[in-house]
Design brief:
- The chain has 333 residues and is an alpha+beta fold.
- Among the domains are: 135 residues, Alpha-Beta Complex (Spore Coat Polysaccharide Biosynthesis Protein SpsA, Chain A), CATH 3.90.550; 49 residues, no CATH class.
- The chain has ten helices and ten strands.
- The protein has a four-stranded mixed sheet with strand order 1-6-3-7.
- α2 runs antiparallel to α3, α7 crosses α8 and α8 packs across α9.
- The chain is elongated and about 140 Å long.
- The N and C termini lie far apart (137 Å).
- Keywords: Glycosyltransferase, Membrane, Signal, Signal-anchor, Transferase, Transmembrane, Transmembrane helix.
- It is a single-pass membrane protein; Single-pass type II membrane protein.
- Pfam families: Fringe.
- GO terms for molecular function: glycosyltransferase activity.
Length: 333
């Protein structure tokens, strides 16, 4: 009995030793190459056959289709990056910056100089014309705007929107158009600083900001090297003149585009009582103020007294837009 048990033990030990030798001497299987790993990953992303896509993802390419197209890891990551760009950021989340830096904070809202009042808010013009003659400033460096015109108007002016649209419609917005009214009867003389120790005289016409002026889209794009991305202030320092003079300097002196003079723009620097009330519908801008130590405003009758309406803007508005809710129904002009 003991001899039989000893024989079985020896046979078991010999078998275990032989198995260990076979495991140690056998060649290990080659590891999968990176490309094969990528294909396996793509096949694993495909999921079981017949699985329906999640709601809202029907337009996205299926991972199984990607696996059939991809032949290398570089193509795989290229397709993923392309799909990520097409899909955009996830809903409710902000895109992560690629360089690890936090995204810049959103721009702070800038306070507007315009203080809307019932005396100067015109009736809303047609929707089709609002986009054609928006008077908003262009964003620095931005060329994606669809606005056709840039118009500068001071906050003490009255703007006849319909007359403004008629005027701008007569000029091509992609050509060089600089239209307004000069406040001087001759070109302004200025000194241009060329370098630290060198200056030279320069003269040009400019449209006064007190009457307002408009610049076409084509001309505004040409002005961007001197007027966008903070360069406007440095350009103004070159001639040491106000903003409306600086615009004329860029347009006439640097770009060689002449000012188109229009008598439809009016500032407080002229005698506004000479503007006939019968021609108010054709005027683009109107103003008020003091002229030769006297009150300077449009002379016209209206539903409001001079004490209640010293600028005469409310009376002018009711004359142009009599259907305005706050205008009296029985008005004699």
């Amino acid at each position: 009995m003991l001899k039989r048990c000893g024989r079985r033990l020896l046979l078991a030990l010999a078998g275990a030793l032989l198995a260990c030798l076979l495991v140690l001497t056998a060649d290990p299987p080659p590891p999968p190459v990176p490309a094969e790993r990528g294909r396996r990953a793509l096949r694993s992303l495909a999921g079981p056959a017949g699985t329906a896509p999640a709601p809202g993802l029907e337009a996205a390419p299926a991972p199984a289709a990607l696996a059939r197209e991809v032949q290398s890891l570089s193509e795989y990551f290229g397709l993923l990056a392309r799909a990520r760009r097409d899909a955009g950021p996830p809903p409710g989340g902000a895109p992560r910056p690629a360089d690890g830096r936090p995204p810049p904070p959103p721009p702070r809202p800038r306070p507007s100089r315009w203080r809307p009042t019932t005396s100067s808010s015109p009736s809303r013009p047609p929707e089709s014309s609002t986009a054609r003659a928006s008077t908003c400033c262009w964003r620095p460096g931005s060329r994606a705007t669809r606005r056709w015109w840039f118009c500068h108007v001071d906050d003490d002016n009255y703007v006849n929107v319909r007359a403004l649209l008629r005027l701008l419609a007569s000029y091509p917005h992609m050509q060089d158009v600089y239209i307004g009214k000069p406040s001087l009867d001759r070109p302004i003389q200025a000194t241009e600083r060329v370098s630290e120790n060198k200056v030279r005289p320069v003269h040009f016409w400019f449209a006064t900001g007190g009457a307002g002026f408009c610049i076409s889209r084509g001309l505004a794009l040409k002005m961007s090297p001197w007027a966008s991305r903070g360069h406007f202030m440095s350009t103004a320092e070159r001639i040491r003149l106000p903003d409306d003079c600086t615009v004329g300097y860029i347009v006439e002196a640097l770009l060689g585009v002449p000012l188109i003079r229009s008598g439809l723009f009016h500032s407080h620097l002229e005698n506004l009582q000479q503007v006939p009330a019968s021609e108010l519908r054709e005027q683009v801008t109107l103003s008020y103020g003091m002229f030769e130590n006297k009150r300077n405003a449009i002379h016209m009758k209206g539903p409001f007294s001079v004490e209640a309406d010293p600028s005469r803007f409310r009376s002018i508005h009711c004359h142009l837009y009599p259907d305005t809710p706050w205008c009296p129904r029985t008005t004699v002009f």
